[in-house]
TrEMBL record:
Residue ranges of every copy of the Aminotransferase class I/classII large domain listed in the record: 36-389
InterPro entries listed in its UniProt record: Aminotransferase_I/II_large, AspAT/PAT-like, NHTrfase_class1_PyrdxlP-BS, PyrdxlP-dep_Trfase, PyrdxlP-dep_Trfase_major
Record's protein name: Aminotransferase
Keyword terms, alphabetized: Aminotransferase, Pyridoxal phosphate, Transferase
Lineage: Bacteria, Pseudomonadati, Pseudomonadota, Betaproteobacteria, Burkholderiales
Superkingdom, natural source: Bacteria
Enzyme class: transferase
Cofactor(s) the protein needs: pyridoxal 5'-phosphate
Family (UniProt): Belongs to the class-I pyridoxal-phosphate-dependent aminotransferase family.
One Pfam family recorded for the sequence: Aminotran_1_2
EC number: 2.6.1.-
UniProt organism field: Rhodoferax lithotrophicus
The keyword Glycoprotein is annotated on this UniProt entry: no
Alphabetical list of CDD domains matching this protein: AAT_like
PROSITE patterns reported for this sequence: AA_TRANSFER_CLASS_1
Amino acid sequence: MRVTQRAQRIEPFYVMEVAKAASTVAAQVAHTNSPMVFLNIGEPDFTAPPLVQEAAARAIRDGLSQYTPATGLPQLRECISAWYTSHFGVSVPAGRIVVTAGASAALQLACLALIEAGDEVLMPDPSYPCNRHFVSAAEGTAVLIPTTAAERFQLSADKVADAWNGHTRGVLLASPSNPTGTSIAPDELRRIHNVVSQHGGITLIDEIYLGLSHDAQYGQTALVLDDQIISINSFSKYFNMTGWRLGWMVVPEALVPVIERLAQNLFICPSTIAQYAALACFETASLAEFERRRAEFKARRDYFIPALKYLGLDVPVTPDGAFYAWANCRTACEKLGVSGSWDLAFTLMDRAHVAVTPGRDFGHADTHNFIRFSTANSMAQLHTAIDRLKVLLA
Ligand SMILES: Cc1ncc(COP(=O)(O)O)c(C=O)c1O
């Protein structure tokens, strides 16, 4: 069967290929004294807190399963708006918030609404792999710009200005980033947005990890800068609801009807049950639980990053958010006689039973020298992983 060029342009999501291989090895070692430790997938080991689970069960029992408006339940949009005020001290009217089937649907809607065939979108290398595919599914081209540790692996205003040409439509940023857990310094973000605005472009920023910020100097939403910025967010990470498929986007007022029209046609609405459940995320007890978990993520980071560095897996920029460690693995590769991060991931999987993600997914520049650890696993599992890596690398 002939498939489209569009579909052929989408590369495999290698994280998933590695995850498949890790599951196979995991099944083989499950009943040994060395079961697999999974530090490869970027999702919280926590699930939705009790009030959210109860709200979901209640919605099912009460038959609250009809379609909602395409932009989401009005009361959920209000809750998200209130959360921006209480958590970030910023006023974001509910009318500018569109609830979506995860950040993934929000990114698709934004790309379909704003990118014409042939448009170029600037993004950092390394960055979240699906982003370039959302752009390419909208017939645009993702332009990956290599970044350095000094830039916190983020774009700079100078690089955006240098790369801008007649085809450039805007920037797609993520702060904090996957795979690095590092954020854009607020002043740099302002400068980037100024460059973009001067060219009449779009600043699209993925803030899905913003709730999991560990450093006050970075933990502010880009929405404070300008109501023309498009911010993507989700219930997946801070709210621990990955499989519930719920997220949102904040868009300029004028874009709301456009996004609504696309959302009506493409998705009808996000999951109704998940939306009713998500209302309970904003109860005091749930918010307290999310903050307790955020502190736990920080404690894991504070243990894991120095331990990696001790093993020669240097993490050039300490993550200020999310739950990742982007580690330079060149020394480890030399020590184990493997040629780069792809082979190293399989070596660690086979010899230490520790699953990690090789850099390959995230870009092309220096990604063969990096592996990504996800610290979204229990402290006990992180200790086990370090003990096993020590045997190979110390
Ligand atoms: C940076 C980034 N954006 C978007 C997503 C997709 O999130 P969602 O589950 O909300 O679709 C992920 C998932 O890992 C991510 O890391």
